[in-house]
Backbone:
């Protein structure tokens, strides 16, 4: 199974992706955005065009891992990466954006399911770790904008048969995992 968990920061993607990978017995492919975020002067700098090679490298590396594993759950996918490209203002580079858009859109066609947790389904918590604050705003309205963009790209790029927008009432990780497993036709294990 090839499953991606997508959405804005703070909606529980990483937690859900890890729990799904564990429940399905498949590898978890981590986010891998550190090459962007570990250079805050470059990432937040005025000339975002210097980021193009980093974005392209992240897409290549992630795809390479997905091909190597075959079955997997991935935390974030090219939908999120394209949104971040646009959010950093790279859309002004029209030819590069067209090529990156096509590469990202084509890459997501391999997923059997893309899962997007609901925005505001869990409480946004302030993060005390300064490195995390470089790239994760705790402003829920900015995150709503990000989530709406990511969800919009997903709806444009993926058929509804391969897209699962989790209902808001699924608050616990167990409920979310059970819902996705049912969608996949896999019976959740009964726990004592």
Residues:
């Amino acid at each position: 199974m090839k499953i991606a968990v997508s959405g804005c920061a703070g909606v529980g993607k990483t937690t859900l992706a890890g729990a799904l990978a564990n429940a399905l017995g498949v590898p978890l492919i981590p986010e891998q955005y550190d090459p962007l975020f570990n250079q805050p002067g470059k990432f937040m700098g005025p000339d975002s065009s210097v980021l193009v090679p980093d974005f392209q490298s992240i897409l290549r590396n992630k795809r390479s891992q997905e091909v190597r594993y075959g079955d997997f759950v991935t935390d974030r996918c090219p939908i999120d990466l394209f949104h971040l490209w646009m959010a950093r203002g790279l859309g002004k580079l029209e030819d590069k954006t067209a090529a990156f858009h096509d590469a990202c859109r084509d890459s997501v066609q391999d997923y059997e399911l893309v899962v997007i947790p609901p925005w505001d389904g869990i409480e946004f918590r302030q993060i005390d770790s300064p490195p995390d604050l470089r790239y994760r705003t705790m402003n829920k309205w900015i995150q709503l904008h990000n989530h709406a963009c990511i969800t919009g790209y997903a709806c444009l790029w993926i058929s509804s048969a391969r897209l699962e927008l989790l209902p808001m009432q699924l608050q616990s990780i167990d409920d979310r995992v059970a819902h996705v497993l049912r969608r996949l036709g896999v019976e959740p294990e009964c726990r004592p």
Q: What stands out?
A: The longest strand covers residues 2-5. The two ends are 27 Å apart (CA to CA). DSSP finds nine helices and five strands in the chain. The mean pLDDT is 86.
